[in-house]
Amino acid sequence: MATAKFFSFACLRNESSNYGELSPKPHYPSMPKYPKGVSVSTDEEKSIYGTESKAVFSVNGMSCSACAGSVEKAIKRLPGIKEAVVDVLNNKAQVIFYSTFVNEEMIRETIEDVGFEATLIIEETNEKTSQVCRIRIKGLTCTSCSTTVESALLLIPGVQKAQVALATEEAEIQYDPRILTYNGILEAIEDTGFEAILISTGEDRSKILLKVDGVFTEDSMRFIESSLRALPGVEDIDIDLELKKLSVSYKSDIIGPRNFIQVIESTGSGRFKAMIFPEGGGKRSHRQEEIEHYRQSFLWSLVFTIPVFLTSMVFMYIPGLKDGLDIKVVNMLSIGEILRWVLSTPVQFIIGRHFYSGSYKALRHGSANMDVLIALGTNAAYFYSVYSVLRAATSPSFKSTDFFETSSMLISFILLGKYLEVLAKGKTSEAIAKLMNLAPETATLLQFDDEGNVVKEEEMDSRLIQKNDAIRILPGAKVACDGFVIWGQSHVNESMITGESRPVAKRKGDTVIGGTVNENGVLHIRATKVGSESALSQIVRLVESAQMAKAPVQKFADRISKYFVPLVIILSFSTWLAWYLSGKYNSYPKSWIPSSMDSFQLALQFGISVMVIACPCALGLATPTAVMVGTGVGASQGVLIKGGQALESAQKVNCIVFDKTGTLTMGKPVVVNTKLFRSMVLREFYELVAAAEVNSEHPSAKAIVEYAKKFREDEENPVWPEAEDFESITGHGVKAIVHNKKVIVGNKRLMLEQGIFVPVDADEVLAEAEELAQTGILVSIDSVLIGVVAVSDPVKPGAREVISLLKSMNVESKLVTGDNWGTANAIAKEVGINDVIAEAKPEDKAEKVKELQSLGKVVAMVGDGINDSPALVAADVGMAIGAGTDIAIEAADIVLMKSNLEDVITAIDLSRKTFGRIRLNYFWAFGYNFLGIPIAAGALFPSTGFRLPPWVAGAAMAASSVSVVCSSLLLKNYMRPKKLDNLEIGGITIES
User: Fold this and answer.
1) Looking at the domain 131-201, which fold is it?
2) Average pLDDT over residues 600-604
3) Lowest mean pLDDT among 16-20, 51-55, 134-138, 662-666
4) Domain ranges in the chain?
5) Which of 469, 482, 659, 844 is the catalytic position?
6) Model-level pTM?
7) Which parts of the chain span the membrane according to its record (predicted)?
8) Which are the contacts of 975, defined by CB distance < 8 A and separation ≥ 6?
9) Is the dihedral of CA 815, 816, 821, 827 positive or negative?
10) Which of 907, 830, 903 has the alpha carbon at shortest distance from 876?
11) Which of 236, 690, 789, 938 is the most buried (most CB within 10 A)?
12) What whole-number distance in Å separates Cα of residue 541 and Cα of residue 638?
């Protein structure tokens, strides 16, 4: 499973985990108090649950890939393993794992249990030696180009991983910053002959591009740079003297872009003016630039090609014009031939120079691409024509036949095809463009006096918002950044981010997401996440990363591309040679040869046609364009798919393991019943219980505290008595001293472990609660069982229907939960699941997934809690509920943003449709080449007299690439299964 990209969707998360009876979420020791709905930093979670760690082992004794496979398989069976890669050549194993569930010693022992000697490599394990940068590459034309660049990158010392995406013309490189810098990577790409532009580096958490006016010397720019470097929080500065541009990387918690502008403008006594650098160099402008380049090239080629076409194929049949063109200038050289030569030359060498430079770059690195085929084909036609007309000029009897129209028309049609191709490719990434357009261009900044009154309003570029800024959002306006409401009430339409169709009510303390739309009231918000940290930016990054990642099926096309062009050149030469020798030795009737040419020229046309009809581009674009459109469509439907690997695995899924709490259930438990076994005032009972549970982040604890507030109706935020010696007992409950009384709240096992007698009455209440799919929580005070609190977490609307639809799709459903058996069975029965595993610890869930995989099943895990992370990693496809925890979302391959179970079906169905489209693309690409090449070689000529002129073959080649991209674009019309459109949920019919 590919390493999942970090995705902190904090605005959508809640703190639910698969806690249940036996797997509680531990207490955060010193949890800071945030406004309602504001999320807690994942650093705090990781300090408790364990960070993602990497260990590298030296493994001795491996002799083949089978040995490496057995070691890798054994490691992956361990709980908490995120990724394991075994390198048999270097005798190393690299393991990424969650330290809560497994450690280096356990992994080492596991390797030795397989029969190999393992040693932990300390220096490689402890140092963080990985950084990622993204680079745009101009000039990629086919899979061969991307493979050439990728191979060159992988040969650079320090590069750990490199992916080059043909469809997006971008590269993502993971490298060791101790050995290599991104400047070295840029130079290496440019050495392969392509232009490289840095998009981002892993260290650029927050980055701003500023343009400075009023700078006339290099010293002034350096002076500005030194002034900015002196500021706290500034991490790095890159300057572009030519464009007078500054790229500033900074810590957004300490400083922001307005500070930079202020410092720059005060540095030169008002001489310098700074602003956000005008949009340019981005993906959209690059794509527009490419589209315009091909459009202009095609139009200029037409200026010269149309007269060439007319003089060679139209005017020759018009009396008068034909006579004029046939007038001889020197010996047998005519005016028509000179005109065609003069007009075709700019097309060949000026307009078509791109094909020469592309061929040179490819051949210099020992590869061949589409440009090589086009350059060979057009040069063969052009230079044979030059030879023919020069021979006519020097001979009184030789009558020349030129192919100038072949070379110029061939280039024109290919340029038209490239123009249509880049136009269509631009549409494949429209999903990202639409997401980026959600952010408003401007925002209204508020300034307050000491009493909290607004004293100043200022409209500014929304990219200048800094953390803790107060922003006014008017009705109908877009929310400028992530934050929380500090004043006002309104409803906000969040459908464009979360997929929630109904506007969500917002009041003081509630969170808002940048890019959503304020419906009615005025809101004042406090900015918490800006720029690259916002939820919208992270969604965009996630979709971009997904579109970069190659699906395994694409490796097939990459392998073919290495041999495709050389094979076509061999076929082309063989075709010319076969026809030429056949004509020379009269192997076919003379009547087959057209009157305007001889056997050599006929053979040359067949050879050129074979060369230019072959299309490696169609093969290279078949997978990435479909993945781009599929992931984009998924994002628009609230299903974030992390790349081609996830798409390919999801379409094979035949078994789904569901978590219970927060996945099949709402994840928001409520107290439904209280049973006391001793005489006690209910208010006092809940006073003690709430005082203990308020320190816990578990959903059931929150439900009890919320219920206890009812006994203090006069207080909006009651202060509970102080709990001393608080302790959270993982999987069982909590205990504390409140008012000098020992209070224990938890399950039956906790009570028995603490030596507390559980009477028969309490067992009966617990059994009754379990039958009703409720969780019974026992409460003891001073070692005496006082009562039982029944908590119910209702099943999500439509859960039963979703399980039924999955069954109709031949997908099995299973339930794995940390809750007790009674509650788990009741929930499973309600939703229609037969296979249940209850009282499961996190490692038990991962083991269950691996057990199913050992039976040959392709397993998806659907969960939302931290306890689900090991299982999400172990599964072939991990699906995280969007409202779940950050760690679960990070571990998953697919994020269901709307937290709707129906989207599980959407994800599987979309992946199946996408791979159906990929198969169709490959069928077309291979079918086109298998049929087109023989026809171009003259397979039909002996029986039908049909031959394919080279310019027609070139047009067919161009059309092939365009057709594959257009085929992928049809995925934009994807509609989720009709069965979901009228799904009845709780008596309400939902229409999409």
Assistant:
1) Alpha-Beta Plaits (3.30.70)
2) 87
3) 16-20
4) 49-121, 131-201, 206-279, 284-435, 443-533, 552-625+912-973, 639-661+798-908, 670-792
5) 659
6) 0.65
7) 297-318, 338-356, 368-387, 407-424, 563-582, 602-622, 922-942, 948-971
8) none
9) negative
10) 907
11) 789
12) 15
